[in-house]
Amino acid sequence: MSGGQPDTGRQQAAPLLDFPLSRRGDALPEECARLRGKAPVARVRTLTGDEAWLVSSYALARQVLEDDRFSLRDTANDGVPRQYALTIPPEVVDNMGTITSAGLRAAVMKSLNPRQAGLQEALRATAHALLDAMAAEGAPADLRAAFADPYSAAMHCRILGVPSDDWRRLMSGLDVAFMTAREPFADSALNWYKDVGYFADRLAGQAALPAEERTGLLGRFAELKESDPESAHLTDEMFATVAVSLFGAGAVSTSAFLVLAVLALLQRPELIGWLRRHPERMGVAVDELLRWNLSVGDGLPRIALADVRVGDVLVREGELVLVLLEGANFDPAAFDRPEELDLERESRNAHLAFGAGRHFCPASALGRVHAMIALEVLVERLPGLRLAVPAENLVWRTGFIKRLPERLPVAW
């Protein structure tokens, strides 16, 4: 006998919830509210078959993200439980940690500054040029392929100091580089190493230029190689790996957010008109769209470095914790009327779209400006923008680090 219950010979454990919950980025997974209310720290089974703790309330999500006893870097260690197979080089997992330890943080942060000379003007010009091309070809058009991807990639080409015409070559490999798979596959890292060679060549090209002609982060790296004794030990491959990581993570994240932000507006066309009439409110609107964003479909992973209590659960050292952003950012304990996309939301919008704590996204200000300019130009140029197909006909990508429609067909 056990606990007054009949002895059935074996205690039947409750089935684990399979994670991720959904690949659609236009509908909140129905499990979110139930988990947050009944099991804000719940045991789940990941894509690899490993077990993890899924944290779905705002307060507990922030606790995990701000507590240094939960490590991002250690999710790349051998033998740890994973959300999906490690298909990118381990040094890419905690890129900013690598950047900081190499003494490159100051150079990187300067390159990510949205107020750097000429950047916003260049973004606006790029947005207009892409819409000119869309208009010339006529509707319908795939907004992701014709606008979001090239616009986001062009910004990162400029930031890094590589030719903007190379955006397609650089974006083409990311569909493989950011796959989420059950098992490692032999060629998963080929794109990373191919692009390391590309950026190493571009770094050499920057180094060959006079100092006043160097541009972007690679130009700053070329200067460090020449004049900073503390950087003398860094190889061209190390500099190039930083550039590859920034382009990959940055271009995918900004494009995915922009696609889902536009989709959310297309499903509420009255908001497009409101934004057109109130461009001065674009910053507030972008923060609300960030809160609403469902692009992170696999949670934010951390490995516990010690036994830590999270809510009613004792998370043991070495266990995997996944922060469910769509749980936290739709928590009624943190946001009034969270189920409503309110572009006039006045209270401080302390969403977790950029993370929190040590790993708060260093490009958060750049990401906001990127989206603000894109949406300003879109609603100004295409006030009649609309979905060209029923929303239920959108095809959502599987096995990818972001929730993303394969195409976003629009008309205007």
From TrEMBL:
Record Pfam families:
p450 (PF00067)
Q: Which ranges does the record mark as transmembrane?
A: 238-266
**Does this entry carry the keyword NAD?**
no
This protein's source sits in the domain of life called Bacteria
Tell me one GO molecular function of this protein: oxidoreductase activity, acting on paired donors, with incorporation or reduction of molecular oxygen
Has keyword Transmembrane?
A: yes
Annotated PROSITE patterns: CYTOCHROME_P450 (PS00086)
Keywords (A to Z) from UniProt: Heme, Iron, Membrane, Metal-binding, Monooxygenase, Oxidoreductase, Transmembrane, Transmembrane helix
Q: Which PANTHER family match?
A: CYTOCHROME P450 YJIB-RELATED, P450, PUTATIVE (EUROFUNG)-RELATED
So what family is this one in? Belongs to the cytochrome P450 family.
Name the UniProt record assigns to this protein: Cytochrome P450
Q: Which organism is it from?
A: Streptomyces globosus
